[in-house]
Amino acid sequence: MSILLGFMLRKPHMQRPLRKIAHSRVGLSSLVVLVFFVVIGVTDSIHFKDTESQTQDVISLLDYFAKPLINRSEKTYSAPFSAYQYSKENITHADGRSEWGYPRLQHGGAHLDNPEQQKARDIALKVLTALLRSCGVLLLAFLLVVWVFRRQSIKYLQVPSINMALLTCAVLFTVFYTLGYLSTFYHVLGTDKVGEDVFYQAIKSIRTGLVIGSLTTLIMLPLAILFGILAGFFRGWVDDAIQFIYTTLNSIPGVLLIAASILMVQVYMANHAEDFNSLLVRSDMRLLFLCLILGVTSWTGLCRLLRAETLKLREMEYVQAATALGVSRSTILWRHILPNVMHIVLISVVLDFSSLVLAEAVLSYINIGVDPTTYSWGNMINGARLEMARDPIVWWSLTASFVFMFTLVLAANLFADTVRNAFDPRRADHD
Amino acid sequence: MTEVLLKVEGLQVAFKQDKVVDDISFDIKCGETFALVGESGSGKSITAMSVLRLLPSSARMQASDISLAGESLHEKSEVDYCQVRGKKIGLIFQDPMSSLNPVMSIGEQIGEVIQLHFSLTKQQRRDRVLHLLKQVEMPQPERRINEYPHQLSGGQRQRVMIAIALAGEPDLLIADEPTTALDVTIQAQILELLKSIQQQTGMALWLISHDLALVSNMADRIAVMQKGKIVETAVTHTFFQHAQHPYSQQLLAALPDMESCRKNQAQATESLLKVDDFKVYYPIRKGIFKRVVDHVRAVDGVSFSIAKGKTLALVGESGCGKTTLGKGLLNLSPASAGRIIFDGAEFEAQQMVASKDFRAQMQIVFQDPYAAMNPRMLVGDIIEEGMQSLRPELSSAERQQRVVSLLQQVDLPESSVLRYPHEFSGGQRQRICIARALAVEPKLLICDEPTSALDVSVQAQIIRLLKKIQQQQGLSYLFITHDLAVVGELADDVAVMYQGKIVEQGGVEQVLTQPRHEYTQTLIAAVPKLKEA
User: Fold this and answer.
1) Do A325 and B440 touch (CB under 8 A)?
2) The domain containing residue A215 runs over which residues?
3) Which residue of A261, B6, B23, B165 shows the fewest CB atoms closer than 10 Å?
């Protein structure tokens, strides 16, 4: 990625699209959000053995930072910022008296003596503290950056898009710092059925969402582009063969295929138990295989689109002119066809990315998605689904996963839109 | 005759900051033919659209007065305006194919307009449609009434469009480039039809065109538009005798002229390309096994030769196989039979191997400069591409140098190298295409209607450029065109193609002035000529 960027920065005509992205307010802010998500995903992927705890579990860097969240599980459901459990149960008091009521939580709001009266004031105070602290940190960081880059900073700060990106950065930091600070006292997004903090779950799910979205796309793209362009360009028997493959693949119910292959993996892992001794390795293996099988089944749609576009492009006069100039077929494919179908690829990749995150939720629902122990938005939704009928409703798991998913997909969509606009020379003059 | 029908005063149309129509005023009198002439982008279609209030929503329009027969139009509400469109003012568009609804029969489409403006019974409506179809001289109107647009030819579709425009019995008919998409013989028929209808009904005709020769035969008065302004309005007769404004004079001077062929003197030189009995057949396949039942004879046994440093013009109407012939020669579409002798080397057309040497000898310039260049490549890379594959011995620096010299040769600035094709106008793009073809130093350049997508003045520049290059480098051209006037400007020899066959060929002067074949005679007669003053 950085090699590509470096290459592009050296060519004057390639700088134009990059500059255009840098000047787009929406593009740069959504990039900041995306990077933020990716950073969380990466910190969650760096695993090491935790030597401090007694169990010596393998944990990720993210878990290390979020330790206070992990060890603060309750008995069962509790609403966001609540100090009491969500369901009634038999409480035994110190004096031996027992009562049917809502028990206090072990961790959430445990520092309060009288939650009914103190809670609102306490939360407001804590939010204020967090805001002040984060503002202080931001101001310091800002001054430091301005001081280090004394010369350039004045120039860059006049660009509205950079201001916007910095603002996005600041907002993200403030929001997450405040939430993080609050969650050491409360469960900001409540707890789930087994009392786990939902905020922690939602953050852990980012990695799963990113892995499924990007890995599946990486597997799908080469297949779709290669087959689509070849079928459209060469026609004849190549076209027939490729069309046969994707119609066949399309006519097999996707869910069946996925279920079968997930089952195969499970059997394989059961037979080779010594290679998959840790729970983490097993769930990651299953996630990887899910990406693979999703990728293999989902390239057909894009392939069809690309085939149609290539059929149109190969009759264009510039392709004929290249043929007349003796340019070889592979060069024509690479230089004339591929760049002109890239806009379709980009749009459908982003759309697929969102639908893959959603597909994961659907597959988890019928138990053939990611491992039930893996944190994922799909599993969160699946768990919350059972409680939708409850009165009053358990809404926080669903809302949390929805908000996180929505932010990620929206940022990806907006960024892809900016990229597509920037790289289309015909749109260079507009807006 | 002298009563003013349409009066437009102080009309302005702007898209964001660009003023496309800048404070123009004119009037059209009852029963006259008024022509608005200008090059593409001069704002003539926008003017018509703003009178009809059919502008795109991003346009801002202002006018101090637009009135039809004394009745102010621009104060009318949108609902009242619907009574004006179609009923008082009819409109014919340029492209009859995209203006007709493909899933409605033509009877329904004409009937729809009648239904909107008159209350008639079903039977009366049908009679009226038939009457209209007869009025536009549609052959077999009883059968055609139930047919769909794709079953009609281009000329017949334009007749249907005219019938629709006439259905509301308008006082004013706006014809926006009514014949640009049509062949020259069909064009003559449609213009004849418009004239005769105008005489029958006494309506006024507002003709919008870029073709001065066509206008000179039709119009009573002419207004010339340039960059959103009307620069000159005059009675046709006076206009063509002494045009006042320099721009009008420039337009008149740029008109290609068939007569100019007399200046060319043919000298016999040895032939570069000799084509013998060349055929391109497309198989028609039917049934499960895709058996070949018949062939479409796109090019059916054509023989001709091109002399070194000379130009052969291949003339014919659309669909006669002239483009297929050009592409067949280059092996861009497979040839079925024939023999080619190129610069002494002899090939069988079917076995013609697309060797790199051969590729470098023959190059092509396409009709549509907008589609002929990859929009995602830089102009420098586009020109360099051919050299990369056909002249691998050149170093990168030598190639760059040659790109720059080629750009100079086609009169484009050096800075074009790092720009994209869409940043150039149509004429400039065609220059880039010519530079691309010249890059590999061909001996024969096949020009497939290189000027037909361009404005008159730009067309003249491109022809001048082609002539200059021919003189400098001794290139031969195979110039494929439907425009006989351009032929007169450029060609040494002419071959006339009709339904896949060459029906007549010879020296340009002989073919244009004493055509022997019947088809050539109709073709030449149909070309609109400037009315003798």
Assistant:
1) yes
2) 28-45+197-428
3) B23
